[in-house]
Design goal:
The complex is a heterodimer.
Chain A: E1 6-13, H1 25-39, E2 49-53, H2 56-59, H3 64-67, H4 69-72, E3 79-82, H5 88-101, E4 107-115, H6 121-126, H7 142-156, H8 160-174, H9 188-193, E5 196-198, E6 201-202, E7 211-220, H10 221-227, E8 232-240, H11 255-268, H12 273-276, E9 279-281, H13 289-296, H14 305-310, H15 327-330, H16 334-350, E10 363-370, E11 374-381
Parallel strand pairs in A: 2-3, 2-4, 9-10
Antiparallel strand pairs in A: 1-7, 1-8, 4-7, 5-6, 8-11, 10-11
Helix pairs in contact in A: 5-16
Chain B: E1 4-11, H1 23-38, E2 47-52, H2 54-57, E3 77-82, H3 85-97, E4 103-111, H4 117-122, H5 137-152, H6 156-170, H7 184-189, E5 192-194, E6 197-198, E7 207-216, H8 217-221, E8 227-236, H9 250-263, H10 268-271, E9 274-276, H11 282-291, H12 300-305, H13 331-345, E10 358-365, E11 371-378
Parallel strand pairs in B: 2-3, 2-4, 9-10
Antiparallel strand pairs in B: 1-7, 1-8, 4-7, 5-6, 8-11, 10-11
Classes of the chains: A alpha/beta, B alpha/beta.
Protein name (chain B): Thiolase family protein
Pfam families (chain B): Thiolase_C_1, Thiolase_N
Domain Thiolase N-terminal (chain B): 5-215
Chain lengths: 385, 379
């Protein structure tokens, strides 16, 4: 692990809605930054560097790191920007770790944000793909996910109801999270009866589009415990970003997640993830991901996820609660989403989860998802690495 | 600071239009050259940082276009910085300093030929107040040049001298796009682009890719040709142009001071042997002299008048020809770092400055040099 032990010591997030007409992007960012600083009882003067991420095609702003200085507090500080699509939040979160662990900075503010209400998300996502080979057939996010979902159903004989249970679980959890966008319980029948978007994905199987921002502060060991009594120590991170052409991607099982999980488990010394991890905040943009991807993370054997979910093992009172915050199916402000997972994992370790708190969390895992089936993974713990 | 070295560098030729190359082709070329330069294979690389800009590439997650060209793929942990390559190199270095990785490959690419510079740089500006009046990188820089000339009495001739110097230096750099022996009058008489900027005050539209390999610990010590990072810092200024005095580069003042402090440099003009600075426009080089502490505020004109930054001066600046001789947007600063490394190694070929022990590289981000990154490298 790194030379300097480093922890998330403060988190802040906005109130998420489909459209935050009351704020512009910079004010939205500032809402998360202010809350984060308040959480750590810090001022912007305490911050040594800022790293920010979003997708510039979404809001149509070039050089967001420069544009947002008034909201991030980056004036006369070191600032740069990361952009890796859906995984932006997790790569920003990991950058916060590397920048502090490097010893170059004591306290680093990492920010992810997105104002999806001002963008055409599908059009923007479509431009991610190769203009000659992929763009014409790969329309936005949902088409590729539908192919993956159909392959999962076909390969393991799972049902659409099995997937619907993931959405039901996450939407139920979201009711405990005052920041979540969609806070209304749904049933399997509701999911099954919702409009078909891209077979087999129905409206209630997928995440909404959200305006929101998230910020976390990383601090080195010298400062961490002074700022936060129970810091969330960074133990392991991995990012797996394969892709060139869609045809090169194996959509049965999330290969990038398998490799990311293998790497972080090895780095963090985790042998039996289901038993050893206390809570997971997963970037599950649609219900089928809640089946396939937890298999890739080795929580169960391939094809075993429907039973694990149906048995309630991943519910709030289960063996390994997944997405106490309600996850992405309740809130998806894309550039912030994966950082929200890290922030929520840190909140669980800090014991600040309120109604969504899982008791006695020692090991929490957060993931990011994006690009063309890319995965990032982070292990946070209450104990020092 | 712990010892970190640049152990390999690679760049493509900078050209107006690389019709035969995709982003991936260019990045592959730069990566391969950097690996060969370092005497390494991809197996020796722990992690990869790409540098691009989605607007310039016309592609969301533009890193996806070069993921396997830079040897990333499933095997390596990757990330993507948007902005200038000097900033991504900083992140690459931080990853090594964290102790998690030993070697980082940092790549950058852009194809100005496939971009619409005016629209793309208009999108840098605030959508409500500044975009509608049509600000872009060229006319905002023209405002900055006018303010700089007004505040400090800098003349158009002094700015033109930068263009003359750099285009002439480029004659000896095989990677440069525009190399020519021109006079001050040629610059002054070239057509007005955005008053007071004339054609030869401006950098061209360019295509190129660049790559550097950074290493720490034993990997750096065992490197064939290590060039050590002595100091590095970066700082961002205010966003709204009206919130800054455009004639001064406060963020550069701070970044340079911090980098000098780290490198133990007290008198930059005398202690630095060669500098590669981000001369997107001729006047900028003069402004950056001041921000970098080579002269007092307003002294940039005198510095060029005295010939101090000429190839045979006390502190040659942009022996490669700088950006005026080829301006690929995100690799722009990274190429400055590469050139600084080559100078320290004595590998700069015909544009080599004699006896370089310490070199400076400079990158900028945002409009009118809102953010600056300063690297000091040496033997």
């Amino acid at each position: 692990m790194g030379k300097k032990r480093t922890a998330i010591v403060a988190t802040g997030q906005t109130n998420h809605r489909s459209s935050r007409l009351d704020v512009n992007g910079i004010e939205l960012i500032n809402e998360a930054v202010d809350r984060c600083l308040e959480d750590g009882e810090l001022t912007i003067d305490d911050i040594d560097a800022v790293v920010i991420g979003n997708m510039d095609h979404f809001e149509g702003i070039n050089y967001v790191d420069m544009w947002s200085i008034d909201g991030t507090g980056g004036f006369m500080k070191p600032v740069f920007k990361l952009t890796t699509g859906g995984t932006t939040g997790s790569t920003v979160g990991q950058a916060g770790y590397y920048l502090t662990a490097s010893g170059m900075f004591d306290k680093v503010l990492a920010i992810g944000w997105e104002k999806n209400s001002e963008s055409d998300t599908t059009a923007a996502i479509t431009t991610a793909f190769d203009p000659i080979w992929d763009r014409l057939v790969f329309a936005g996010a949902i088409g590729g996910l539908a192919v993956e979902a159909m392959l999962y159903l076909h390969t393991y004989g799972a049902t659409q109801e099995d997937a619907a249970r993931v959405a039901v679980r996450d939407r139920k959890h979201a009711c405990n999270n005052p920041y979540a966008q969609l806070r209304k319980e749904i049933t399997v029948e509701d999911v099954m009866n919702s409009p078909m978007l891209s077979d087999p994905i129905k409206l209630l199987d997928v995440c909404p589009r959200t305006d929101g921002a998230c910020a976390v502060v990383y601090a080195t060991e010298e400062y961490a415990e002074k700022i936060c009594p129970k810091p969330a120590w960074f133990h392991a991170g991995a990012v797996k970003h394969p892709y060139n052409l869609l045809g090169d991607t194996d959509l049965v099982g999330l290969r990038s997640m398998e490799l990311a999980a293998k790497e972080v488990y090895q780095k963090a010394g985790i042998k039996e993830p289901l038993k050893e991890i206390d809570v997971m905040e997963l970037y599950l943009p649609y219900s089928y991901a809640g089946l396939s991807w937890i298999e890739a993370m080795d929580l169960c054997k391939p094809g075993g996820a429907p039973k694990l979910i149906a048995d309630g093992k991943t519910d709030m009172d289960g063996e390994l609660p997944i997405n106490p915050s309600g996850g992405v199916i309740a809130t998806n402000c894309i550039g912030a989403t994966a950082l929200l997972r890290m922030a929520e994992a840190a909140i669980q370790i800090m014991g600040k989860g309120g109604a969504r708190q899982v008791p006695d969390v020692k090991t929490a895992v957060a993931t990011g998802f994006g690009g063309c089936f890319w995965s990032d993974m982070t292990v946070l713990r209450s104990t020092k690495p | 600071m712990e010892n970190i070295a640049v152990v390999g560098v690679g760049q493509t030729k900078i050209e107006r239009n690389k019709l035969g190359d995709t982003f991936a082709d260019m990045v592959y070329e730069a990566t391969k050259k950097a690996l060969d330069d370092a005497g390494m294979t991809m197996d020796d690389i722990d992690n990869v940082i790409t540098t691009s800009n989605d607007f310039w590439d016309g592609r969301t997650i533009s890193t996806m276009a070069v993921n396997d060209a830079c040897g990333g793929g499933l095997a390596k942990n990757m990330s993507a910085v948007e902005g200038d390559g000097t900033f991504s190199a900083f992140y690459g270095m931080a990853r090594i300093l964290s102790g998690v990785y030993d070697t980082t490959l940092v790549v950058s690419h852009v194809k100005g030929s496939e971009s619409e510079n005016v629209l793309i740089t208009n999108a840098i500006f605030d959508p409500l107040y500044m975009r509608p009046i049509g600000l872009d990188s060229i006319n905002s820089s023209a405002l900055q040049m006018r303010r700089y000339m007004t505040k400090y009495g800098i003349t158009e001739e002094q700015c033109a001298k930068v263009s003359v110097k750099n285009h002439k230096n480029a004659l000896k750099n095989p990677y440069a796009q525009i190399a020519m022996d021109i006079s001050v009058d040629d610059v002054l008489n070239s057509r007005v682009i955005s008053d007071p900027l004339k054609l030869y005050d401006c950098s061209p539209v360019s295509d190129a890719a660049a790559a550097v390999i950074l290493a720490g610990g034993d990997k750096a010590k065992k490197a064939k040709k290590p060039v050590w990072v002595k100091g590095v810092s970066y700082t961002a200024d205010a966003y709204f142009l009206g919130d800054r005095d455009l004639a001064d580069a406060s963020a550069l003042d701070k970044a340079a001071l911090e980098a000098y402090e780290m490198a133990g440099i007290e008198d930059p003009l005398n202690e630095i042997d060669v500098a590669e600075v981000y001369d997107a426009f001729s006047y900028m080089e003069l402004m950056w002299y001041e921000g970098l502490g080579f002269c007092p505020p307003g002294g940039g004109g005198k510095l060029i008048d005295k010939g101090i930054t000429e190839m045979d001066g006390d502190l040659p600046v942009n022996p490669s020809g700088g950006l005026l001789s080829g301006h690929p947007v995100t690799p722009g600063g990274m190429i400055r770092l590469i050139e600084a490394v080559l100078q320290v190694r004595g590998d700069a070929g015909e544009h080599q400055v004699d006896g370089v022990k310490t070199a400076l590289a400079h990158g900028i981000n945002g409009a009118c040099g809102q953010s600056h990154c300063v690297w000091i490298v040496g033997r």
